[in-house]
Amino acid sequence: MASISAMMMLSVILITVSYFSFSCAISKDISFTAPLIHRSSLESPFYDPKATPLDIIKSSAHLHWIPMGVADTGSGLTWLQCEGCVKCYPQAKPRFDRSQSSTYNPVLCGSYESDDADRTVCNPGTPQEQCRYYIEYVDGSYSEGDIATETFTFLDTGATTSNNGKYSFDISYKNIIFGCGLNNSESFVSPGIVGLSNRRSSLIGQFGFRPFSYCVPDDSKFQGQMRFGSAAKISGPTTKLAPNQAGLYYFQNVDGLYVNNEKVEGIPDDLKTSNREAAKWSACEWKCTPHSCFIEQYNYSK
């Protein structure tokens, strides 16, 4: 995972009881839309009036209205910092207190939830122990804690009435597998990480529908949107995802690299991800950074 500041934030509310929420079984027919705001916007809880233009470029992230965690398409596990953590980092919003939730359920080793969850730690022959997780990112940050299930509630801001008027309502998803962070490195600033990878244990995998999309505006003053399910409508030219046996990242085949409409030499044409060498030339759709980076031998100007 790249720097935490170089990501989007996802809005999610963990609830104990919701009298006004529409609870549903996970279905491909359910969809919702949530607003995205820039990390440096006046509406952001991370807004810094003293930030320089360079600071704003470094924090080119977008977040949802109520931040729960960074949306990371390179992570297969959703986790958030919990009350009672042994090693904690400061966060703007209150930590999740599982003792106050009637829908929080610990996951035990040997259960199907434990088998499905990503980055789990279980001792062999101890099926009744609490299933735990440990996840470490490429920047050295990490989180460790308990695997559990909880009800996640999302506010759908993209719903419409029969006369095309706007309204919003809550959609609740029960028994979502997530991590309750109890030992976390101090490099995080958001309440957690929202896993949106290609794994079955990611939030997308648990929803039961695969499509999701987001639109990020050029100007931080304006809101973008993140759409899930059938709301993630695609228009215009499309590119198919490349085969990915690893089941974690999203890959695209790369025809070549062009600078000012001139093709950079030395990059093989029409590579496919069917072999190990070709996989190195495929673009990994890891939406944890707004910047494009190249390996050293291609980091030059012609």
TrEMBL record:
GO biological process, one term: proteolysis
Peptidase A1 domain mapped to chain residues: 54-302
Signal in keyword set: yes
Signal peptide positions (record): 1-25
GO molecular function: peptidase activity
Gene Ontology CC, one term: extracellular region
One Pfam family of this chain: TAXi_N
Keywords: Hydrolase, Protease, Signal
Family affiliation: Belongs to the peptidase A1 family.
The protein's name: Peptidase A1 domain-containing protein
The species this protein was found in: Acer negundo
